[in-house]
Write a structure and sequence with these properties.
The protein is an alpha/beta fold and 232 residues long. It contains 6 helices and 13 strands. It folds into 2 domains: 4-138, 3-Layer(aba) Sandwich (Rossmann fold); 146-219, Thiamin pyrophosphokinase, thiamin-binding domain (Jelly Rolls, Sandwich). The strands form 2 sheets. Strands 4-3-2-1-5-6-7-13-9 form a 9-stranded mixed sheet, with helices on both faces.
Length: 232
């Protein structure tokens, strides 16, 4: 299976997405609610369209809905009630996992709404527990939820700054090798900034978590010049 891409309802630079799509092919493409607007601007075919559609432009949504119902677009449309127990992004991730993709890339998951941003970061637990590589990607950051051991190739990093933020209450046995600030069998508790803004010095750096899970964030201060990739 190819990598799956989810376009959520947060802020999305269509030029950044356009250049990203020039570098990698995704299938299927899942649009969640307002993510449809980015697909419309990009002329990007949508395989699955879902949500309660309370934030998307109704003109855009109704036009697509009419074409789907007429058989002019081969898109699977699922409409949910606005009062539900899961966000549209969570529904999209669960759908993607059912399709058994090689990996999942989520865009439009960060932006002005911190409540949605935090919720989306926590939703990375779903693909992690399913054993599917996944990341949240924007112009400045690539975020993954990790456990165990992860090896990073410096030439493939999304940005020069590497941060580890505990997902569980306490992450034990944290060892960082090949970094400017190495660690050996350390503890990262919630409420600590110990893991922020490290930098790899070796061509291959390694992160080991003895127990627990942590967000691994690759960041940069300026937008990625060539819009980056989401290589795993």
């Amino acid at each position: 299976m190819l990598p799956s891409k989810i376009l959520s309802g947060g802020r999305i630079s269509t030029e950044w997405i356009r250049r990203l799509l020039e570098q990698r092919t995704y299938a299927p493409v899942i649009a969640a609610d307002r993510g449809l607007e980015a697909c419309e601007a990009l002329k990007l075919p949508v395989d699955y369209l879902l949500g309660d559609f309370d934030s998307v432009s109704q003109e855009v949504y109704q036009a697509h809905r009419a074409r789907i119902l007429a058989g002019e677009e081969h898109t699977v449309l699922t409409v949910y009630p606005s009062e539900k127990d899961a966000t549209d992004t969570e529904l999209a991730i669960r759908l993607a996992l059912q399709l058994a993709p090689a990996s999942i890339t989520i865009v439009g998951a960060t932006g002005t709404r911190l409540d949605h941003c935090f919720a989306n970061l926590s939703l990375l637990m779903l693909p992690l527990e399913a054993g599917v590589p996944a990341c949240i990607l924007d112009e400045y950051n690539r975020v993954r939820l990790i456990r165990g051991t992860v090896r990073l190739q410096r030439r493939e990093l999304y940005g020069p700054y590497i941060s580890l933020i505990p997902f569980d209450n306490e992450v034990k046995g944290v060892t960082l090798s090949g970094f400017h600030y190495p660690l050996q069998d350390a503890v990262l508790p919630v409420g600590s900034s110990l893991g922020i803004s490290n930098q790899p010095e070796a061509e291959q750096a390694e992160i080991t978590l003895g127990s627990g899970r942590a967000w691994l964030i690759e960041s940069r201060d300026e937008p990625w010049p060539d819009c980056g990739t989401d290589r795993k």
